[in-house]
Amino acid sequence: MQTYKISINDAKKLFTQLNCDKGGINILSKKAKLHTLYIKQMHVGAANILKQDALSIGADLAVPTGVITAKEKYVDGILLGTTKHFELLARKELAQPFGLKDLAKSLKEYIKENNYKTKIMGVLNANEDSFFKDSRFCSKQASQKIESMIEDGANIIDIGAVSSRPGSLPVEPKVELERLKDIVDTIYENKYYEKVDFSIDSYEPLVIDYVLNKGFKIVNDITGLANDEVCKISASYNAQVVIMHMQNDPKVMQENPEYENIILDLDAYFKNQIQKAKSFGINDIVLDVGIGFGKTLEHNLTLLNDLEHFKHFGYELLIGASRKSMIDMITPSSIEQRLPGTLAIHLESIKNGASIIRCHDVKEHHQAIKVQEAINSIN
């Protein structure tokens, strides 16, 4: 008899290779993946009930000392268990008091499987102050660059005319549109939108309305739908909307950003903005945690490591860490030297749940992602 350790990243494939019973594969898969879920401000009664229910099925709830004697009325906790455990608890807690019914619904959403194909969003900038000069293009160069990006494997091309790098200043909407107009018209006239989806990196209603009328399908809003007019216009065109998180604005966002708990703070933010989007009739939503937008290096690393948490909303997750300064903080490097670090972050993000990768280097990402997919297909 021989034993060796295996990766359980794709349990279903491994169980299939063993020729397990088809009905049992789904059951086994649910037992193979471990989840950790932070629960904030539980009633102490809920904590005690959930602790006992979790232990009874082989899961567990980490709680502060003193919960058993109800020392504090409300406590935080960390629930640990497999997909199967969460599935059982989602049923058990439906009949329990102290807010556990709502928790049961959250658990059900958290373990819902949403498997999206990985897409590459290539970056094309029509401004002179974008932090990476190789992503800047004028209207005359746009056609050649767009065709090149499509050939290199882009699924989406994200076009912007205003820099959002730390310290950057806003631009008048008319100036932004003037920078974009020739490129957008070229896309429309050549029907490039039939070959690839186009996204507008803007939060200005004037700009968004113009491009959506010219074949663009996605609104990439770094303000996360702060402007009601953007909501109205996006809904009228039935556009997909990227809701990104940013603390403050680009001018001051990196001046000592602070969070009580970055995962929970962003979770609450996304919950509110999703509700807002739906109230305007927007249902095609993508979430972006906003790497580098009002975050320290530790904040960014925490978000990347715990990215899977945000899958419970049921929407695609976008990550854009292309050549950002967090790489320089880890290993000193110029913007032009950060492609390896970018690929490392983005490949790890895919493993943790991201399905849209926003990047400057489409060809290199396409190759890296295809190799990653080939490795994973063996499991």
From TrEMBL:
Record EC number: 2.5.1.15
Top-level EC class: transferase
Pathway: Cofactor biosynthesis; tetrahydrofolate biosynthesis; 7,8-dihydrofolate from 2-amino-4-hydroxy-6-hydroxymethyl-7,8-dihydropteridine diphosphate and 4-aminobenzoate: step 1/2
PROSITE patterns linked to this entry: DHPS_2, PTERIN_BINDING
Cited InterPro entries: DHP_synth-like (IPR045031), DHP_synth_dom (IPR006390), Dihydropteroate_synth-like_sf (IPR011005), Dihydropteroate_synthase_prd (IPR016227), Pterin-binding_dom (IPR000489)
Keyword Disulfide bond among UniProt keywords: no
Matching CDD domains: DHPS
Domain of life (superkingdom): Bacteria
Presence of keyword Amino-acid biosynthesis: no
Name this protein carries in UniProt: dihydropteroate synthase
Organism name: Arcobacter roscoffensis
Cofactor list: Mg(2+)
Reaction catalysed by this enzyme: (7,8-dihydropterin-6-yl)methyl diphosphate + 4-aminobenzoate = 7,8-dihydropteroate + diphosphate
SUPFAM superfamilies from the UniProt entry: Dihydropteroate synthetase-like
Alphabetical UniProt keywords: Folate biosynthesis, Magnesium, Metal-binding, Transferase
Gene field: folP
Gene Ontology molecular function: dihydropteroate synthase activity
Location of the Pterin-binding domain: 118-370
